[in-house]
């Protein structure tokens, strides 16, 4: 049996998200809303970059493919009963959508999990739009997956921000205006540019 | 080496919670706030009973003993560095408190996890009071443990409520005022004193 | 949209397992093999009863329906690519099967998780037979789900066994042959028909 | 209150492990035993490098500090009862050690979790030596933490190995002996040298 190359998996993920009406910019907006209070100089492009980075992980890519597949099969009424009704109605006590989504967020530490719980409860932005059942669209899995992507990307920024603070040293150095110290954008550039697309580092760690 | 009887463990848990200023009624209030929107006839005593029930679990009892021990050792400055400073300051990226608390909530399904995430972010009631650092009190672990107890007890009620709805049958029967159908308080009594097949106990816990 | 009654869900689970060649007795055999070393007087019927009990849980029931559905769709080549190839070939780094199965075992404490890890690696009995790819049968999700059921049922017995030991008191009482003390089968009967404070049901599930 | 720099945390982790008799080489040996069957050309130095890499993660560092602290306090009989007896005797149903250790392994995907379960059951090498209770040494938490480090490092190698296989292309190219293709050691060097010590990438992802 042929083996699926990771490039094929990644491309399928990006295509499916787009096909289901989710733009990476929509997810980045949620990340911004989550992290801006702790990080006033945060820029939207940093959020978008973080969304792209977490989407390189195999665990999350597979979860997205499985979840969207089940949503689409339910839309076409191709699941067997009683699963068809449970998924199509986004049954309150059905938890496989959250279990699948939680699996990938666990790798981003406790901030990831609590942010996921928050987003799952207070569906904001694109998550809200997906959760609102209109017409025949089924997004039972997708809204949780988007919450998972956003929570992971948020947690990743929180950790990077701390690393940046440590690199520039204690606050008084900021006041002193030491221009030789790295700026946050420089730190991000450095760690980003050294990470090759779909690198082992991104996937395994 | 002597073996600790489960009665001794349970009594220690109740005593420690009380000693640290947490009354079971405080936790029941959070449960009420979480579940009342989905269950308008919910009574406070049902919430309190649910808190007591989740506190019977070994996994949670052990987590409470470990967490409170670490809080108290940090208060007395008996931990070694750098752990002493990390715990005493409730370091933002320290996640062992949430990991320990999450361990016991995972058994209550996905509602438990999302409620935990919500409570961890929007600290309400007693959780808020514990989180507010006053004087030398350290509650780094305890606030997450209380969130875990409340989230577990909430999820347990959500599952029991569904079981009750199924027992009384579809809504029109309620309108018909079938007085032979079980009331919710009767269902709770019955499931407490005996486990029927597909009981709430089995589902929720 | 109609609401699915829990009886319908449970019946579908039992029917699907049977249809896919998994008898509850096969799972009970794995449970026996896991627990007999710690509990020499363990009887097969206790293992079977424990398998039945964990199968009453909503979280696990839903996971079984989702997993078997994906296996069967892959057999019929009805999944879209690249998911079709990934599931049909039980790709080594595909982890959604384990994530889904792990979700329900987490509720049974740490013994459940380590037993699941062990079974997932040393596939024994029916798990081995499912994992061996013969003909067109796809059991990518089912082998992990069976490991999850067996691990949960094993952990549940370990907790119940401890409760029983505590009820009969310290070992010397056994030597004294106190025939008034409860036997293990009596304890199981009692805890099934009624939940006593600190009962096995509460602890193990 | 002063803030603990991540360098201080990392140094404390390495010092504590050494102080408790765990050499990174001991852990690398377990990793080798786990991964060699899937990767015949695996070298011990790659395993050691992987152990070092997972030890850069904040989540795991914090878990190690907490776990060793509790072990040492139990050795000195400084925990309050009944926790003192539970930890000192490594009580069979005590699960906080596994919960804490599992928290950090979850970030490495499903291979990490099943390897952890396997190691927790079939304690090999240094884990076996720690688990064997000799004299007054308490290693209730440490043996699970070492299993977690080894499982994480193993899973990381499995993912990297796949990336390497994809980079060199399909098997027939290997036969063709295309010397321009990257070798596995070259792939590791490249991804390693681009990761700065304690980088954000390592910590957050």
Automatic annotation (TrEMBL), chains A, B, C, D:
It comes from Paenibacillus aurantius. CDD domains: PgpA. Residues 27-158 form the YutG/PgpA domain. GO terms for biological process: lipid metabolic process. InterPro entries: PgpA-like_sf (IPR036681), YutG/PgpA (IPR007686). One of its GO terms (molecular function) is phosphatidylglycerophosphatase activity. Gene3D superfamilies: PgpA-like. This is Phosphatidylglycerophosphatase A.
């Amino acid at each position: 049996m042929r083996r699926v190359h990771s490039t094929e998996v990644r491309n399928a993920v990006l295509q499916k998200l787009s096909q289901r009406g989710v733009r990476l910019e929509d997810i980045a907006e949620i990340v911004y809303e989550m992290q801006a209070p702790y990080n006033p100089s945060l820029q939207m492009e940093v959020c978008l970059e973080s969304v792209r980075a977490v989407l390189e992980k195999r665990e999350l890519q597979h979860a997205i493919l499985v979840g969207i597949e089940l949503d689409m099969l339910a839309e076409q009424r191709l699941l067997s009963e009683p699963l068809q009704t449970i998924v199509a109605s986004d049954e309150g006590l059905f938890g496989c959508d959250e279990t699948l989504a939680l699996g990938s967020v666990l790798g981003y530490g406790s901030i990831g999990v609590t942010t996921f719980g928050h987003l799952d409860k207070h569906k904001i932005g694109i998550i809200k739009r997906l959760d609102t059942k209109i017409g025949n669209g089924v997004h039972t899995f997708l809204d949780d997956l988007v919450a998972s992507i956003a929570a992971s990307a948020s947690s990743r920024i929180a950790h990077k921000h701390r690393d940046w603070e440590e690199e520039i040293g204690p606050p008084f150095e900021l006041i002193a205006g030491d221009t030789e110290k790295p700026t946050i954008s420089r730190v991000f550039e450095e760690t980003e540019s050294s990470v090759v697309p779909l690198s082992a580092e991104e996937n395994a760690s």
